[in-house]
Design brief:
The complex is a heterodimer of chains A (577) and B (356). By secondary structure, chain A is α/β, with parallel strands linked by helices. Chain A is 52% helix and 12% strand. Chain B is built from 13 helices and 12 strands. In chain B, helix 4 packs across helix 5. Chain B is globular and about 70 Å long. Classes of the chains: A alpha/beta (577), B alpha/beta (356). The interface between A and B is large, with 53 and 50 residues.
Chain lengths: 577, 356
């Protein structure tokens, strides 16, 4: 048993979800392949519940995740409502995923402990509410450009990070050699005369150079960080109109031209062009971000704030440096110009950063206001789903997930899955971590939700009694293959696959007159999916295995109406058909 | 299980409290029972019913600060409550040992399996390193681990969940304890592996004539594998009976509700399960009267004011704590009254407050 085949697919009934010949392989140790799922097929009609049963390691969770394309299967076809998911692009798949929700085994760890229940349940709506309102078509182009920027930045960032410490060291050596040559450092440190007398000049010089190195290192890091959010910035702009984008670019160009016109470089022509070019890009990012953030603050994330700050600091440093061609100031002015009568460069820098922080605060406040507005709009919906899953929203909205028991947290997970009105929910062992009494509550709730919302469910579990309770169709899996598919009542009355029968006999019976020691047991362990047995994968543990099982893989075939089995020697005769 | 000369463990009026910022939390409240040599006792209840705290109180495994445990625990003629840390360490292993729920959490990840199994033998029985290793090998073989020779030098992460639990059992059995406490030993495991592990524990108990306390939330797990069952709720024993009697003549509504909430394989698919509504009570400020009243379909006003005592039903071995027991005329009348008042639905599910 445990074979392939697609005889059980019901293409004539227009299934909502149709998976055919799906294979999921992972890279194992030593260059070997883990055959997690090897050619399974199943389909789901609208409003149906499919139970996937099997032991740990049989590939049932991998199957559930592969349907969501996390990760995408190695091969095979997955169709949702006639749309092939395996060939969708990343953005189209992201959109499709809102119709495919998931409920996980451990309810507490699948909810973010730092967020309130309101935010936890409303999160998918925060992400999607803007999309639902419709966006200008130009935004798509901005997003594409953003994605390009992001991939370029990702490639650039790695060497920048590696080179940063070397660059900092080179900078320090360069400054030190200059200082030795002109005795400039001594002059620069004039204002530190008294401390120098106390600790000695060499120690102080090393300290100052070390501080300078740290500063350079920090600058390089800021620069690297500023390159990351290109994609975020373009997405931000994408959500605003094209006019704003053009205005932002124009502003950026203006800044760049001004920069180029007023600066004179002491680093030579090529360095001048390079640094100016870099600044143009940074200024563009900054300007677009600023305009967009003021218009659509809910899309300006923390990385945008960091990028803007970095760009500001760099621009101002550049400006300061351009005044007399040095970053550190003239020797006569003392360190960072503090000794001069004009306002010190350091003071200018500090003042500029302070202004930036004020701007960022304003944007942050607008961001919070915007979030609150979205929250107010989504809150009635959150209250409604929480009520339907049996959680009192008045007590729950402001609390955190860890304040709830396992059963309550699982109800909240179900509410979060429901809020997007999904077509299909994949429940991955949703009751395995719960007490029997709570398990019954959750199973009943899932049935109610299915009636109320017309849900289609994939219910993954290892306990056949639990699966039978909720399923319209049950598929038994073993080591990445399908063993038996059928109507739950029929499957339990007359299991055709030896594995199904052994799974059934493992269920604990709350009846002391049954001696559990007298029942058939599944011995041994699951074989390694890196080296699955030939032919039928279950043969190594099957009490009925024969030579044919090792040589030939059984295919799923119908042995009675609606009951399909992949076994050469099924326990139920075909004459029953 | 009446007290007699063959009793292995006698627990009387065990009470464990935790000091919390909100007040004293009574996790175990006056539990008494007796376990005879070679017998198996099942302890059943939901999360928070005090069953794990009870077993740790008996083992004296609870922390010293903010915990107070009173009552008597007499194990094979020794009063465990009076023992000091050194004497307790001599007791854990050769006398009483424990199997916990999470096998990965109870094994040392940086120590080979062979050393972990042999550790108890070396410390308690003082055997040589070589001898301990060969005994460990036999133990691994006994608990059904394939290729035990190779496994001796492997680490816990290299084993599956079921195999790890077998190793934990091998460690627990190493010094041939007289009493094994298994606290939800199979809750983290698949049904197929659960059946294997429970079979293993049962076979070992019978061949070693060891006493067993099996703690679980699933009545299905203890049904065919214990001689006597204690049902706990809110830190108290609500029903105690020999296993066959408990299933055939259960009296407490909580026992009935626990049994009815299990999805049974015989049920047709989409059968609505009988749930226990709500959750266990706050143990810092427990409700007056019967602690289960708010979730009970038989409850009346008497239940919320007066706490029912533990009374015998039929034989002295079968005791329960309820004014309106399941299967009695009072119980039937109480249920009918609750349905008529709309507190309980036609199908027997609690939907309202007592007296509401």
């Amino acid at each position: 048993m445990a074979g392939s085949g697609s005889a059980h697919l019901r293409d004539d009934q227009q299934p909502l979800l149709r998976v055919e010949d799906m294979v999921v392989n992972f890279a194992g140790t030593g260059g070997r392949t883990v055959h997690a799922v090897s050619g399974i097929s199943f389909d789901l009609l609208e409003g149906e519940t499919l139970g996937l049963v099997g032991e740990s390691g049989c590939g049932k969770s991998t199957t559930g995740k592969a349907v969501l394309q996390v990760p995408a299967p190695t091969s095979g076809s997955i169709q949702l409502d006639g749309v092939e998911l395996t060939t969708l692009g990343p953005e189209a798949m992201r959109r499709t995923r809102s119709a495919l929700q998931m409920i996980f085994q451990d309810p507490i760890s699948s909810l973010n402990p730092r967020r309130s229940i309101l935010d936890v349940v409303a999160e998918p709506r925060y992400i999607w509410w803007e999309e639902e309102e419709g966006r200008p078509p130009t935004s798509i182009w901005f997003e594409k450009i953003g994605a390009l920027f992001q991939s370029v930045a990702a490639v650039l960032l790695r060497p920048v990070r590696m080179v940063a410490p070397l660059a900092a060291l080179a900078m320090v050596l360069w400054v030190a050699s200059e200082a030795v040559e002109d005795r400039a450092l001594e002059g620069a440190l004039a204002w530190l005369d008294i401390p120098a007398r106390i600790v000695g000049f060499p120690v102080l010089a090393i300290l100052v150079i070390a501080l300078g190195a740290l500063g350079v290192l920090g600058l390089v890091w800021l620069l690297a960080a500023a390159m990351v959010p290109f994609g975020a910035v373009s997405r931000l702009v994408g959500s605003v109109s094209a006019g704003v984008g053009v205005a932002g670019v124009a502003f950026a160009l203006a800044i760049a031209v001004y920069q180029f016109a007023v600066t004179r470089s002491s680093f030579g022509r090529l360095a001048h062009w390079l640094t100016t070019g870099l600044l143009v890009v940074l200024a563009a990012v900054l300007a677009i971000w600023l305009v967009a953030a003021v218009m659509k603050p809910e899309r300006a994330g923390a990385s945008g704030v960091a990028a803007a700050l970095a760009a500001f600091v760099l621009l101002q440093l550049r400006y300061i440096a351009s005044q007399d061609g040095t970053l550190w100031g003239d020797a006569g002015d003392g360190f960072l110009g503090l000794g001069s009568e004009r306002p010190g460069k350091l003071l200018v820098l500090v003042a500029a950063v302070a202004v930036d922080l004020v701007i960022i605060r304003v944007v942050r406040r607008r961001l919070a206001e915007q979030r609150a507005a979205v929250r107010d709009r989504v809150e009635p919906e959150v209250r409604r789903v929480l009520e339907t899953v049996g959680i009192n929203p008045d007590n729950a909205l402001d609390r955190r997930p860890y304040e709830f028991s396992g059963g309550q947290a699982q109800r909240i997970s179900i509410a979060r899955a429901l809020i997007m009105n999904p077509k299909v929910i994949i429940c991955d062992e949703p009751v395995s971590a719960l007490d029997v009494s709570v398990q019954a509550q959750i199973l009943n709730l899932l049935e109610e939700m299915k009636r109320e919302y017309g849900l289609t469910l994939v219910f993954i579990a290892h306990d056949l009694a639990v699966v039978k309770n909720v399923s319209d169709r049950v598929a038994v899996m073993y080591l990445g293959k399908m063993c038996e598919v059928g109507d739950p009542d029929r499957l339990y009355e007359a299991p055709a696959h030896p594995y199904t029968q052994l799974l059934l006999s493992a269920i604990p019976h709350p009846d002391p007159s049954i001696d559990p020691m007298g029942l058939d047991r599944l011995d041994g362990e699951l074989p390694s999916p890196m080296d699955p047995p030939s032919g039928c994968r279950f043969r190594t543990r099957c009490p009925h295995a024969a030579e044919r099982c090792a040589a030939e893989e059984p295919m799923l075939r119908e042995i009675s109406p609606g009951q399909f089995v992949a076994c050469h020697f099924p326990l139920v005769g075909e004459e029953g058909a | 299980m009446t007290g007699s000369s063959t009793s292995m463990l006698e627990v009387a009026d065990l009470r464990t409290q935790f000091a919390t910022p909100a007040g004293a939390l009574t996790a175990v409240d006056g539990v008494s029972f007796t376990l005879e040599r070679g017998r198996a006792l099942g302890v059943v209840g939901e999360s928070g019913s005090g069953k794990s705290v009870m077993s740790r109180s008996i083992m004296r495994l609870l922390p010293k600060s903010n915990v107070s445990s009173t009552g008597t625990v007499n194990f094979d003629g020794t009063d465990l409550m009076s023992l000091g840390p050194k004497e307790l360490r001599e007791l854990w292993g050769p006398e009483i040992s424990m199997v916990f729920q999470d096998p990965l959490g109870s094994l040392n990840p940086v120590m080979t399996i062979g050393r972990q199994v042999a550790e108890g033998l070396r410390v308690h029985l003082g055997v040589s390193k070589k001898e301990a290793r060969s005994t460990a090998l036999n133990l691994l073989r006994e608990v059904g681990i394939p290729e035990p020779q190779r496994r001796l030098d492997e680490y816990p992460h290299q084993l599956s969940g079921g195999m790890r639990q077998r190793v934990v059992i091998a460690i627990a059995l190493a010094c041939s304890p007289k009493l094994l406490i298994a606290d939800e030993p199979t809750t983290a495991l698949d049904v197929t592996v659960q059946a294997q592990i429970l079979d293993l524990i049962q076979a070992e108990r019978q061949s070693r004539e060891m006493s067993l306390i099996l703690i679980t939330h699933d009545l299905g797990v203890v049904a065919g594998r214990t001689d006597h069952i204690i049902v706990m709720y809110a830190g108290r024993i609500v029903e105690t009976a020999p296993t066959s009697v408990l299933f055939s003549e259960m009296r407490h509504p909580y026992t009935e509700a626990l049994l009815r909430s299990i999805p049974k394989i015989e049920y047709a698919s989409h059968t609505r399960l009988d749930i226990i509504p709500g959750s266990p009570p706050d143990m810092i400020n427990p409700p007056s009267g019967c602690k289960f009243a708010a979730r009970c379909r038989y409850a009346s006003e008497q239940c919320s004011t007066e706490e029912p005592p533990l009374v015998a039903a039929g034989s002295p071995e079968h005791q329960f704590r309820c004014f309106f027991p399941v299967g009695s005329d009072e119980g039937k009348a109480a249920l009918e009254r609750n349905i008529a008042e709309g507190r309980v639905s036609e199908t027997g599910v609690v939907i309202g407050e007592i007296g509401g």
